[in-house]
Each structure stands twice: as structure tokens, then as C-alpha cells.
Amino acid sequence: MTDDLLVRPLEPSDTAEAAAVWWRSRHADGSQLPPAIHTAEQVAGWFADVLLPDGETWVALDADRIVAVLTLDGDDLDQLYVAPEAAGRGIGSVLVDLAKDLRPGGLALWTFQTNLRAQAFYQRHGFREVRRTDGAANEEHAPDVRMTWGGHPESEPDRTS
């Protein structure tokens, strides 16, 4: 279902559309995410002023429309959002595979404890939970989960061997 998908780096002309995907994903019916603490306009500014120049951000396009966003910050998978209308088509998996290809030494990420779908998704992609926090360190102050993949320095040793 991802045959016509184009994945490329975020460009200046993409920031408003990419921010809109982030916003719609965060506020979709049934979202397991805490409400965003910034306005849609602030998120658009963050995409333009921070993610574009400072992050390694990728967009997935289907029929010339941005349907997903991935941001890597060092070895952190910092952002992964798929537009609600494109969810369930394997686009998130394509972007996780890209992140793994770009960071073969390992990745880490945070997800909210309430976001059980994301935790299951990342587990299917080989990520393992390494710790939980009360959320005091994130902007939303919502409890979160740290997950790692591969040889990331925060990964716990495999106890099955």
C-alpha cells in the first residue's frame, strides 16, 4: 500500500503542511496523546524555525500531499506522526525502517504511557522499553516511556541469551 509513497527531506515549502499533519495526528478522534500545549500556529513556527534548520526531518508524500513526518535528533527518533487519514497503511513502518537505516547503531525514543498503540507499534519494530517516568521532564508533564532499538547506549543487555 506504500508503492506510490515518496520519502524525502523536509523542505522550507513543506513546513506548514508538515505541521498540519502533526497537529491533525495529535488531535485525531481516539488519539491516545495528551493535548498539545502549543497552538497550531506555534507548531508551524517550530517546524519552520527549529525542525527545518536543526532537525533531520523527513516527510512522506502520497499523491503530492504530506501524509507523515519523521524527525531524528541525533540517535533519538524524536517525532513520528502519520496523518489520521493515512494511518494503517504501513507509512509509519516505512519511516521507522528509514530511521533504522540512518542510525544502524541504534535508536531511542519517548512515547507517552497513554499511547498504547505507539508502544505496540514500536515493539513490533524491535524497540524495547527501558524505563518509565512520571513525565516531569516533558512539556506536557505526562508520564512517558523510554524505548530503544539496536545497540543504543541506553539499551539493556538481552537477558535471553
Distance between the termini: 37 Å
Structural class: alpha+beta
Q: What is the typical, i.e. mean, pLDDT?
A: 89
What is the count of DSSP helices, taking H or I runs of 4+ residues?
4
How many E strands? 7
Q: Report the portion of residues in β strands.
A: 25-35%
What pattern of helices and strands is seen along the backbone?
EHHEEEHEHEE
Shape: globular
Helix percent reads 25-40%
Enumerate the strands of the largest sheet in spatial order, edge to edge or round the barrel: 1-2-3-4
Which runs of at least 5 residues are low in confidence (pLDDT < 50)? none
What is the radius of gyration computed over CA atoms, rounded to a whole number of angstroms?
A: 15 Å
Largest sheet: 4 strands, antiparallel
